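Exercise 7 asks you to align residues with tokens for two separate proteins.
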Amino acid sequence: MSTIDEIKSRIDIVDLVSEAGVKLRHAGKNYTGFCPFHENKKTPAFVVWPETGTWRCFGACNEGGDIFKFVMKKDGLDFREALQKLAARAGVQIQEYQKETPQQKEAYENLRRLLEDAVIYYRSHLFANREILNYLREKRGLTDATIETFGLGYAPPGYDNLLKYFTAKGYSEQDLIDSGLLSERQDESQFSNLRSFDRFRHRIMIPIRDEQGRMAGFGARVVDPNDIPKFLNSPETPIFSKGRLLYGLDRARKPIRTADQAVIVEGYLDVIALHQAGYENVVSPMGTALTEDQLRLLKKFTRRIVLALDPDLAGQKAVLRGLDAARSAMDKEGEFAFDARGLLRNESRLQADLRVATMPDDLDPDEIVARDREEWARLIGNAKPIVTHVMETLASGQNLEDPKVKNRIAAQVVPLIEDLPSPLERDTYRQALARMLKVNERALVATQAPASRPRRTRLPAAERAPQETVKVAIAVSSGRKVEEYVIGALFQRPELLYRLDRALQEYGLTAVDAHDFTYTDHRLLFGLIRESVEQYKTEHHDFIVNALPESLETRSDELVRRVANLDQRDEKVLEELLRGILKLRRMAAGENLNQLRFLQEEAQSLEGDPRASSYMELVLQHTRLLRELDEAHRKISRKRLE
């Protein structure tokens, strides 16, 4: 019996759920109650099946799972933490995991050796190119010692320079693909004489190492400002996962411990310039939104973390993008986003002290230390708590005498305050917000009250009380919003489904399927859309409406309202649908990959367990899928700019 199965056998799911405050009632062999994860308490839509040890909510959150999923959702834990917590409850000892089998270790070391050789290869091309070298020295202000220390290099133009060089040295083409140095040809027209081609071309190359200093991949910055994207990372590989790495952490570990503080900036070159200036407790999340895994990495060294936003991202748009009330259904990928609500949750969960520092005068961090080295220390020393930063940024340049402006700011800040776990902090920030808006504190409490009441679904929009708009500030997962957009758009334009399927197939991906959606109501609605397209050549929408179950009428109306301003151009809608499906698949693949890696580790810890090789193959399959999805996303972006 595996560790997971043993824990499940020892813990009664009914006891576990009941102890979490859910009042369960017998319903035949099962139990029902009110879901603890959402506010609607009208119907006991939460069901527990003791025989299978599972649960599901058939209400608003529409989620389910086993005891691990319940604890993960209730306590905000990842799978490993939930396992440890439940193992302690069950009295099951978790053995230390052997992270790599000897075969894996050898394969991973081979990839790392190849990447180390690539560092030397790119560095030789940098020192042979005086123009690029002078750019780093004069434009970026880097010394030769810094360039050498961080292993900077240059990838020359051309599609097979690296391929020829390393195959001549005895490396296989598959090794180069697995390491992320080559990209595989996706269609017959592109580089028809090549199976694969150099991924990095005419770019400044920045080696990325894990916290132990082992090579993991590369970040690459454009030389030609007209090239896209500006930054290009290695793809997901067995040793490179950008959501689990922080650039510069291998060199910043000791300085972070010494300063008892970590500073997060956006760019690689910002990190390098700050280290050169003596501020060595600085790291970067490699150009993407900060993840919980990255924060956990930092938590090993300090609980005091400052997010140093560059001037663009510290502005109004960045703050609004980080609030659920204003986040677009089609969240952008590959950008450094300030997610205020997500950071607050992580701050509470990790018991950390997260603060925000903003850069003045439209300067980037490297420009600030070049102008005045001591100014950087002052800016970080004056970093503000997240809620204070949001309050001040939203209020900047606004007429705070206008009641509508006050209401708009309160509608966005009050939900953040209510997310805070400490009553003292909540009270302090309410007082600060009331002083800033020059209102009575009781008015702020009244502003929040409607969000805790069930929302009326059939009341016409024109007749709703104004305060009900605050409801949109309740946290909704990004994945759910994307699903809502896709289903709502297809509900309005079902004829686009065939074109969406063909577009996916052109990128080597499968057609849209009900399993692309997590929520049951979305799956049911998609099934009707698919049926209408496959059985009727015209009048798709009429078929869907007539076949719609009564239980889904309200939900379908809500989804259609969410896309009421849908673009009239089919090509634009098709592009957004394609991006949405890619994002949903990437999120699902990433989540599956994390759990598969954990299961793989567990299987490896049991000597002779035959599942280890199966899990390894599944990990590789999901890694390849992520790579294919990323490549499709890049092609869409390139096509849009053509």
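Second protein for Exercise 7:
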Amino acid sequence: MISASPTPDVFNRWAAVYNDASNPFCTLEARLLDALLPSLDGKTILDAGCGTGRHFDLFMRKGASSLHGVDYSEQMLELARLRLPQHSKLHRSDCTTVPLADRSVDVIVCSFVLSYVQDLHAFCCEMKRLLRPEGQMFLVDMHPGTADKFAWKRSFHTEGEEVSIQWNHRCLSNIRTLLQQQALHLRTDLEVPFSEAERFLFNDAGRIDAFEKIKNDPALYLLQLTHDPLAAEYSISGARCAITSDLGLQATLGINGEKISFLQQDNKAEARELSLDGYMLLPGLINAHDHLDFSLFRQLGEGPYQDTREWANDIHSRYADEIALHRMVPHDVRVRWGAVRNLLCGVTTVCHHNPISPGMLDPSFPVRVVDRMRWIHSPAFDPEGLRAQESVQSDIPFILHACEGLSASAAAELRDLHHLGLMRSGTILVHGLAVGHDDIATLQSSGVALVFCPSSNQFLFGAIPLPQLVNGFELAAIGSDSPLTACGDLLDEAAYATSRYDLPAGKLYSMLTTSPAAMLRLSQEYAQIHAGGIADLIVVRDYGQSPAQTLQALTWKDVHLVIRAGVIRMASEELLHLIPQERRTQFTRLAIDDEFRWVRGSFHDDFEATTTIQESGKLRLGGRTISLA
């Protein structure tokens, strides 16, 4: 083995094999940056020490408008040029003399570089010079304490020999101190171990014993810094936070307004503290398909049917009186109960597939309702509305029920969409029951997104979408549909989908968070927990499992607290003490089956307005009994 200083010549040698290695450090680091980087829409990015440009795709996917890559290895830059997006430039330089103007960069990412920098003070000064007043810097590197404990080295193999690169084992506390001396404030401060997501890399390399030995020690540190000092109206401490679907870390969150202002381990904030020892924080769930105004119905129908037109005709004949009674309840009351149905199971954002009334966009409404969307009911019920979409060019998502049934006309809807040029990115198809094996490749290549509600399909048609479609489709989400046809709330639907499709926990996690955010073109700030993101959070008991495994096992009874946009919207009796006594008058205590929940807002008038459909002073909400307590 050769020991070498971190010179350009050494990194030139490394460049030839850099992209070939299966490196668990890089795998973990890439997942962290994907989860913790904010939206980069319209921003200028500096990748300081960019190497072969392995993060360029991530920056572009998050919306960066321009990119600068800096590295002092010419061979690394040659490979980076192969990945270089438009409106981007590469610069051959070290990270202490970057050829860019003062305050010209919005976000700096410096990954696995800091430990090679000789003059840390010069580096900090240079990064501070480049960063705009509201800019952010992310530093990621191997954890020096764990590296010393296990005598880690940084090396690569080339031309039959191993080259070990010398690096600086700086104490992490010293790094923090120097950064803070430059008036750079820590927004995120995490020391992160490997998780089960990296286990397979160790296993493939025949080093599973090494994984078991080090899995409880931090492998990397990640620091996010800004010019602005910390501010928080209150903090949440003691809970394990879902950083990714596989990784939960105990940390303190600062909440300022509707945003998460910081995410740090061992932070003692001066703000009012909510102590949540023994709990886990998950991101608020996103319900990709619901009809809020139908939530007080029970399941109606005597299927199986061939398509939704047959079902609709049947229930309007068979259950006309019951439907008329429900319609006597004012629309604004019905949608509020629909919002409560979602809130109780941890949903903070809903895509409502019906007209949106002004009250649904009021900040006091229990859940956030997606309003930046175009929609029709379906080709079967609104063929003219479908044809009108042919000429619309917009980045706003277009949503419709499609292929909902087993009839020939349901199956033909994909052909009609293709003929109209609507099989494209931004189109969201709900259900997809009639999609056949031969259609899957076309759907995958078209850029459309799919929302599945399998319990609704089973109730109406006695069938569910193809497993290959649900498990294999990347941009896929789960919706709860309405109690008219579905089995319950969003968590009930998720459990049903898991049982019928054997969904992996990670897949289900994405179908309730990041995937619906992407297809609805919401910022990922609504789907992930990170500093600068929207404070949409749900609190559940922590049983030591990964966030994805925890979510997969949840029912509404496990959701003890819901925070939307920084405000507590629902609390169980168990966590009621987190709401000051003087503020509890802002909440209504509801009895749901054998549980009690405190929901923000007054629902006494809404309950009174539902007398036509009450039984013994109780309502049915998504299959559950609800009353004022």
